[in-house]
Amino acid sequence: MTDRITHLIHHPYQPPAGFEAPQPGVFKASTVFFPTVAAMRSREWKDKSAYTYGLHGTPTSYALEERLATLEGGKECLLVPSGLAALGLVALSLLKSGDEVLLPDNAYGPNKSIVEGELMGWGITHQYYNPMDPEDLEAQISSRTKLVWLEAAGSVSLEFPNIVEMVRICQRRKVLTALDNTWGAGLAFNPFDLVPGASSPVAVDVSAHALTKYPSGGGDVLMGSVITRNPGLHLKLKLTHMRFGIGVGMNDVEAVLRSLPTIGLRYRAHDVATRSLAAWAQTQPEFVQVLHPALPESPGHSHWMALTGGEEGKAAGLFSVMLDSRFTQAQTDAFCDALKLFKLGYSWGGPISLVVPYELESMRTIWPEHLLRGTLVRFSIGLEDLADLQADIAQALEVLR
Ligand SMILES: *Cc1c(COP(=O)(O)O)cnc(C)c1O
């Protein structure tokens, strides 16, 4: 080696091994080197025994995968570029032409778009079940049903289903279950052990999580995870993940690794503030219904209590209100526009409080009987001072008075 540039590119310096610091290092790669052709040929990419290509992981992504699997009570984890990609990966991997998938009618909207806009064209049919009626779910299971999606609490309307009963039904009928675990985040309950101490475990098969929300906690990263306990199921998902090349960037992985240690503190703080604001919202005459699983009047409260025990730190940072039906959508929009600290924006889990008015009618196949008629507004509570947030909602309510 005579050329200085070649020397630069193939520089022999190796920093000493054994560096330790609070955060794992950020290892970025497409190419990964092998010492010999034999090693290249024989190296295993289906597990974490070594490294083969950046798409299949580096020490950085392995660390996040292991930590997330621990958080959610699972064994294996795959990282994907968004929460929605996690939902998509589950469908891509587990459903084939001729199969049917069941979703709760309050499923995360874009998951409904996957089944309606993509899967239908591939000969995969779907049905929506009433999330508050396990019998309705059971009645819709047929020999073609290969996957049942669960969500607790439900998107936007936040009713809490009896997922224990629904998982038991699916286990009995030998249908795979996938939970969108973004709301629970691995903190409200353990999806792989829903009834601790049960003689046979009540467990979902797959937990999909939008890390974009609480694990990131900053409103600045998109990422998702797919967690399982069953090695065969993990391998099936991993093969699909590899074939389609659904990888993540290590700078984003680092951002999630950095936030993850504080997820418990943040989730609890969001929960405490949200419960308090939701209880106060119940005293405001313009709000005819307040939806939050910890409120005794909220649909499915008893299921949430039975599953979580109801303690602080088990209920995330979302609540929705139904504005009296005498208010038009335009008035509801004006109320949202009048909020100052609450920003208009999708997603949640970050430090800034957010608000979105939803036209629920267009999002459900039927208007849920447990919801009063009106216009719905969803709040996501950030980490601001509680009194400031309450004052902001109070001043915005003036536009309705
Ligand atoms: C946000 C969210 C997703 C999607 O996450 P993205 O990272 O925004 O794609 C999926 N499910 C639920 C319940 C969510 O709230």
Automatic annotation (TrEMBL):
Its cofactor is pyridoxal 5'-phosphate. Keywords: Lyase, Pyridoxal phosphate, Transferase. One of its GO terms (molecular function) is transferase activity. It catalyses: L,L-cystathionine + H2O = L-homocysteine + pyruvate + NH4(+). InterPro entries: Cys/Met-Metab_PyrdxlP-dep_enz, Cys_b_lyase_bac, PyrdxlP-dep_Trfase, PyrdxlP-dep_Trfase_major, PyrdxlP-dep_Trfase_small. Belongs to the trans-sulfuration enzymes family. PANTHER family: CYSTATHIONINE BETA-LYASE-RELATED. This is PLP-dependent transferase. It comes from Rhodoferax mekongensis.
